[in-house]
UniProtKB/TrEMBL annotation:
<dbReference type="InterPro" id="IPR036388">
    <property type="entry name" value="WH-like_DNA-bd_sf"/>
</dbReference>
<dbReference type="GO" id="GO:0003700">
    <property type="term" value="F:DNA-binding transcription factor activity"/>
</dbReference>
<keyword id="KW-0805">Transcription regulation</keyword>
<keyword id="KW-0238">DNA-binding</keyword>
<dbReference type="Pfam" id="PF00027">
    <property type="entry name" value="cNMP_binding"/>
</dbReference>
<dbReference type="InterPro" id="IPR050397">
    <property type="entry name" value="Env_Response_Regulators"/>
</dbReference>
<dbReference type="InterPro" id="IPR014710">
    <property type="entry name" value="RmlC-like_jellyroll"/>
</dbReference>
<dbReference type="GO" id="GO:0005829">
    <property type="term" value="C:cytosol"/>
</dbReference>
<dbReference type="GO" id="GO:0003677">
    <property type="term" value="F:DNA binding"/>
</dbReference>
<feature type="domain" description="Cyclic nucleotide-binding">
    <location>
        <begin position="12"/>
        <end position="132"/>
    </location>
</feature>
<dbReference type="InterPro" id="IPR036390">
    <property type="entry name" value="WH_DNA-bd_sf"/>
</dbReference>
<dbReference type="InterPro" id="IPR012318">
    <property type="entry name" value="HTH_CRP"/>
</dbReference>
<dbReference type="InterPro" id="IPR018490">
    <property type="entry name" value="cNMP-bd_dom_sf"/>
</dbReference>
<protein>
    <submittedName>
        <fullName>Crp/Fnr family transcriptional regulator</fullName>
    </submittedName>
</protein>
<dbReference type="InterPro" id="IPR000595">
    <property type="entry name" value="cNMP-bd_dom"/>
</dbReference>
<feature type="domain" description="HTH crp-type">
    <location>
        <begin position="146"/>
        <end position="218"/>
    </location>
</feature>
<keyword id="KW-0804">Transcription</keyword>
Length: 226
């Protein structure tokens, strides 16, 4: 059931035939980004799309009071920034690196040319956009109707999935800062700290510095109430 709250488009690249993959790879230009470096910002005009080779990226919006709401966390193997080009609009959010990252850029012209050349890639993009809309709708419903404790449990479960790799299936450590985690949950940092301490006392998580490890996923899922 957690899958309805997790958007992941790694299949966009993985499911492509070899010829289509080569089209994308030939158009990619990679760049190293430092921690907390912006990739694009809300309201700017898109010039291409991005592919995350290594690292983590947060996608967020800032309300009129200056409060940040994290919408999504991208992990390696995912494309992002393409919906603005497909809708011919400016970016509706901001993306920022959460750690040192390697990101590939594909220009708008190259991207549109590849879409003309690859019916498979076009179809997968439509699938991805539909899935993203469904996930965002589910997350908005949670933010509107769930308690902070429920939202915190759900956010930890989502992050556990995002930080899981083939090399770390057993020992998954969430390294998102407390401020970013609070912004993802939609609460104050002090409130989050109390909830994390409660979870720790209930033996649901372990905390080592800024690292969080889930120790009772089943109970957290029950608390998240989904």
């Amino acid at each position: 059931m957690i899958s309805k709250f997790i958007f992941n488009n790694q299949y966009l690249f993985n499911d492509l035939p070899e010829y289509d993959k080569n089209l994308l790879m030939a158009a990619m230009k990679s760049k190293n980004y430092r921690n907390h470096e912006a990739i694009f910002t809300d309201g700017t005009k898109p010039t291409g799309i991005y592919y995350l080779n290594e690292g983590k990226i947060k996608k967020y919006k800032v309300d009129n009071d200056g409060r940040e709401q994290i919408i999504y966390i991208y992990s390696s193997g995912e494309f992002f920034g393409y919906s603005a080009i497909l809708s011919n609009e400016t970016y509706g959010d901001t993306t920022l690196t959460l750690e040192n990252s390697v990101i590939s850029f594909i220009s708008k012209d190259d991207f549109l040319h590849i879409l003309d050349q690859s019916s498979v890639f076009s179809r997968l993009l439509l699938k991805s956009l539909s899935h993203e809309f469904s996930v965002m709708a589910n997350l908005m419903a949670v933010l509107s109707h769930r308690t902070v404790r429920e939202r915190a449990a759900l956010s930890l479960l989502i992050l556990h999935d995002k930080y899981t790799t083939s090399e770390s299936m057993e020992n998954v450590f969430i390294t998102l800062s407390r401020i970013d985690l609070a912004n993802m949950v939609g609460t104050a940092r002090e409130t989050l700290a109390r909830i994390l301490n409660d979870f720790k006392q209930e033996n649901l998580i372990k905390i080592e510095g800024r690292k969080i490890q889930l120790t009772n996923i089943e109970q957290l899922a029950r608390i998240a109430n989904f």
